[in-house]
User: Fold this.
Amino acid sequence: MERIIEIIKEIKPTAVVDENTRLLDDHVLDSLSMVSLVSELCDEYDVDITPVDVVPENFATVKDIAAMIERLEDED
Amino acid sequence: MKNILELLELNAERFPDKPAFIDMEKTLTYSQLLNDARRLGSGISRLGFKNRPIAVYIDKSADLIAAMLGVVYSGNFYAVIDTEMPTERVNRIFETLRPSAILTDKKHTELPSYENAATLYAEDLLELVEDSDRLSEIRKAQVDSDPLYTLYTSGSTGVPKGAVLSHKNVLSYIEWVTGEFGINEGTVFANQTPFYFSMSVTDVYSTIRSGATLVIVPKQYFSFPIKLVELMNEYKVNTLYWVPSAISIVSNMRVFDYAMPEYLRTVLFAGEVMPTKQLNYWINKLSDEVVFANLFGPTEATDICTFYRVNRKFRDDEPLPIGNACDNCDVFIVGDDGKAADEGELYIRGTFLASGYYNNPDKTAEAFVQNPLNSSYPEICYKTGDLVRLNEYGELMYKGRKDFQIKHMGYRIELGEIETAASAVEGMKECACVYDADNDKIVMFYSASRLKEDALFSELKSRLNDYLLPNRLVKLRELPHNANGKIDRKELKTQI
Assistant:
């Protein structure tokens, strides 16, 4: 999860983020940062995040993102 | 026809019960929109002034459209203020706008203010009875060159400039855009652009003119693009007019590999350079019948002055033309020698042109100038500051901005505005922003003492809109300077 937080901070240097920050409700992530985040996560974890996975439930918090990645890694 | 409201009245008669503007909470039919706008206008007109600016401070919604048109009914003109904008920037806009009133709703508790400007709440005005006699009198006294709205763009000295657009401007522009792209009562727009941004003029007034329907897409849907496609299919959206960065989200996430918009027929874009690679994804995925067009123009020409309808294939690394002038609008190129040329600065003339900048005679005189190719009679042109050239097809190609003004995320930005804000931060010594066009990133170089990067960022955040925030901060011990003692921006550009 540390690595996910680092990636978010690289995209949004102003963001104050921990694993429970409400990324969407607190407007940490906007549409353009979502695109960057998805592509960074795909590269970093070597998973295929498709638009079907890009739903609010999977990006609400860093924990949710981590859970999604774990799921996608298992599928591979 | 002299007044934009005549179009609304016409369509309220033709299609009283048809949805005109839809947001996720509310739908306004043509007759509801007309009634709301007339009641709001009656209420505002009690203040007893005309052709005065009224700031509209309401979140993007169907109700915001009613409020804008309500201002117009009152015989005044509107300036839509971004409700997410930092107070400091609102205040800077108010310095030149000097609004006579602020129209808002009760959702907003913390409001911007300006001297003695009255605060009006839409909910209160909507409870009043319409005053038809007064509205008729107001209409009778109006002319088509009266202002309809003012739209603020970023200014180099840090002072935003408000372009003043009239009924005549919008009526003639809309005549072109609806005719060119076959916008009619069967059109359903998925609107992306904010109503304080010139591109929205196309969506909003094409809708009103044609009896079409406009669906306001919530901003969050662009983060979850499958929802975008679902929304487009639910409302049978057939027309889009988005900034390239919104179009690119769909391409970058390969959304059409998973869901297809079934009704889409017209895809228009403007506001910044459309990356061809991202456009090709759309062209390859969608049916051959879909029309794609690259639109180009400044706020000062209502929205658009030239356009290119995509009619041949482009490689991913080949730029799209900006094409040729719209009907009833003319553009020409002036070379460095001040004579007509095939390469140089783009000038615009015709009825799409704004009257000038509100309360800003200096900036108006700089940009709205006598046609340099005509010395026989007074003819005002707009000097765009955009550099263009003609290609082998006789189409215009965009080369870049003449000065430091850039297009970033669809917004026109003068880097000077960011620098002005940053210079005000405590500890800041010197700063300069350069634009990394290849990556669409604003890089700010600065030198400062006892100023931490995150402190600087949060300071900037409180002063600037999100799209004005630098994407990268680079701290230098000292900024390079050229022989004139100015910050050497060319040198900085080599460091990005």
Chain A has one domain: 2-75.
